[in-house]
Amino acid sequence: MVAWKVICLAKKEGGLGLFDIKTRNKSFLAKQLWNIHLKSDSIWIQWIHHYYLPNVSIWDAVSQRTYSPLWKAIISLKDQIVTASIKQLL
For the chain, where are the alpha helices, taking DSSP H only? Predict the structure, then answer.
């Protein structure tokens, strides 16, 4: 048995060079969060602002049961980032 962290190491470091899927997914979600926060040139981002954020900032948005799984994941990551930032300040 080999730990997943070891398998995800680079081949030079004794691993198989596989990507850690959870970390990859978080980085994808963080990039989308960043794009929603700063960009407005994409049709998808404009739709997000129109549908999910009509009167609030991304930082004030909350998840609802009827929202899509992708949007719930983005909001969850946003909440994790905000919580970690607050803990770091204290």
Answer: 4-7, 21-38, 43-51, 69-89
Q: What is the pTM of this model?
A: 0.79
The reply to whether 1 falls in a domain is no
> What is the residue type of 70?
L
Q: Is residue 55 part of a domain?
A: yes
Domain count, the chain: 1
Nearest Cα to 73, choosing from 43, 46, 36, 47?
A: 36
Neighbours of 35 (CB within 10 A): 16
What pLDDT, on the 0 to 100 scale, is given for residue 2?
Answer: 82
Radius of gyration of the chain (CA): 17
User: Are the beta carbons of 2 and 14 closer than 8 angstroms?
Assistant: no
What per-residue string of b and e applies to 10-22 under the rule 16 or more CB within 10 Å gives b? eeeeebeeeeeee
- pLDDT for 55-90, tens place per residue? 999 999 998 999 999 999 999 999 999 998 888 887
